[in-house]
Design goal:
Layout lengths: L2 H11 L22 H11 L11 E5 L5 H19 L4 E7 L9 H12 L10 H13 L4 E7 L1 H7 L2 H8 L1 H4 L4 E8 L10 H7 L2 E5 L4 H15 L7 H13 L4 H17 L7 H22 L2 H16 L5 E2 H15 L6 H14 L2 E7 L5 E7 L3 H15 L2
Helix pairs in contact: 2-3, 4-5, 7-9, 10-11, 10-12, 11-12, 12-13, 13-17, 14-15, 14-17
The protein binds a DNA duplex (33 and 33 nucleotides) through helix 16, strand 7 and strand 8.
Length: 401
DNA sequence: AGGTATTCACATGAAACTATTCTCTGAGTTAGG
DNA sequence: TAACTCAGAGAATAGTTTCATGTGAATACCTGT
């Protein structure tokens, strides 16, 4: 009876989870608490499709984890079911997440993916975009039907491609003879609409819907409902739910985060062999989630990014507290490249890489002007000590030294 | 002293280039009738 | 003659370089008191 057996034993005996899938990100719950109003709005906007009538395009926005995607999909499923039951009208509900890398982050791939969902076939590459587009129109228009097209994280798509793409989609209706198409855009950036072509804005934003963040009490309701299904009885106290909710509420009311927190807490408690989640598990889970996320990011970053990060870390160690500037980073970066015999990129490119690190929250870079000493980014490394440790390991590993 | 003009060290943008990935096409090759 | 193979053409993407333009404020330079 060694340690491994002991682990297996205790796992089999007192697993905390009844059904862990309930807490996972892709789970679709039966009910969606505190979103009735929004769901009804979506439903009333989409209702005309049941009669095959033209409906307004809809634009939905709200922070991550506020139930946007869930609500829209919920309504979509209901409509589809309804249509299937009554059986006369043809209606397709297409959901597409534009952020998924390698699936739908270019114009070509988005349309190709849509064609796939419609049941058509298209090679992953090798065809001119407009012929793919033509094929799409053809497929849509091949019979009399209504198509509800949901583009999730649409802001990502526009950033990568251009808004001309969406413009042509919104204008699609005029090209279609038989069918109707209804566009639903989902975005978590409120400002996304502002720097959009006015024509696109007006046609996409015929109807708008805002999902505001959940507050702590609402999060508690959500958690409680899911916890009931996910855990065995008695595993979760009420204080635990409240604490998870409070943590997540602090982070702009992100329900996904709250659920993650609960799940990871459960996993930690289980691993310790306990039969109950304790408060300390939540704290541990909280930092574990942050750490895992960051480590994941750094680990999966391409080599050049890691070299730049290494340069920043070196400088950070060398001059405790003092500001780090782009030029310094570039010099240090060049040194490291020389040592590791890597290709050296231009300063222009390093600037972009720094901006991306800033976006990811690895560093905090503020553009400041030092007067006669020019304009530059003032960079602060944002890795907490325990993440820092892991990072060093990863970098040493990846860069071989 | 107070007001302008300079100037620095990059930031930020746009366009062009490169390497790689993928499919399709058609020529040439092979195998079977 | 049909089936098969394989190089090359065309297209798209990611990552980068090249060229161009922008910019906030410390400093240098005036100006008139």
């Amino acid at each position: 009876m060694d340690g491994v057996d002991k682990i297996f034993d205790s796992y089999a005996k007192n697993g905390l989870f009844e059904n862990k899938a309930v807490l996972q990100a892709n789970y679709t719950p039966e009910t969606i608490p505190h979103r009735n109003k929004q769901i009804e709005s979506v439903a009333s906007i989409l209702a005309p499709t049941l009669k095959g009538e033209k409906v307004s395009n809809l634009f939905v926005y709200g922070k991550t984890g506020t139930g946007k995607t869930l609500s829209v999909q919920h309504v979509g499923n209901r409509i589809e079911k309804r249509v299937k039951d009554s059986g006369d009208k043809k209606l397709r509900f297409l959901y597409l997440n534009c952020k998924l890398k390698k699936v739908a982050d270019t114009e070509y791939r988005i349309i190709a993916e849509l064609i796939n969902k419609l049941g058509g076939k298209i090679p992953a590459t090798g065809l001119p975009t407009d012929s793919v587009y033509k094929k799409f129109v053809e497929m849509v228009d091949s019979e009399k039907q209504v198509i509800i097209l949901v583009l999730d994280e649409i802001d990502q798509a526009v950033e990568k491609i251009s808004d001309g793409f969406i413009y042509s989609l919104t204008r699609l209706n005029s090209e279609l003879v038989n069918s109707q198409i209804c566009l639903i855009g989902i975005s978590n950036s409120v400002t996304f609409m502002d720097n959009l072509d006015p024509r696109v804005r007006s046609s996409l934003g015929e109807e708008e819907l805002v999902f505001s963040p959940y507050n702590a009490l609402q999060l508690q309701d959500i958690l409680r409902e899911r916890a009931n299904q996910a855990f065995k009885k008695g595993a979760v106290g009420d204080g635990i739910i409240a604490k998870c909710a409070a943590y997540a509420a602090r982070e702009h009311g992100d329900a996904r985060r709250a659920l993650d927190l609960l799940r990871v807490s459960g996993e930690l408690a289980e691993r310790e062999g306990g039969n109950k989640i304790l408060e300390k598990h939540i704290d541990a889970a909280n930092s574990k989630i942050d750490r895992d996320k960051m480590v994941d990011i750094i680990e999966s970053e391409p080599k050049q990014f890691q070299l730049v990060l290494k340069a920043i870390i070196n400088l950070n160690d060398k001059k405790e507290g003092g500001g780090i500037y782009t030029g310094e980073v570039y010099n240090e970066y060049q040194n490291i490249c020389e040592k590791t015999k890597s290709e050296v990129l231009t300063q222009r490119r390093i600037g972009d890489i720094l901006a991306e690190f800033d976006m990811l929250g690895v560093i905090n870079a503020k553009v400041i002007s030092k007067g006669r000493q020019g304009r530059t980014r003032e960079i602060k490394l944002m890795l907490s000590p325990n993440i820092r440790e892991e990072t060093d390991k990863i970098l040493a590993d990846a860069l071989g030294n």
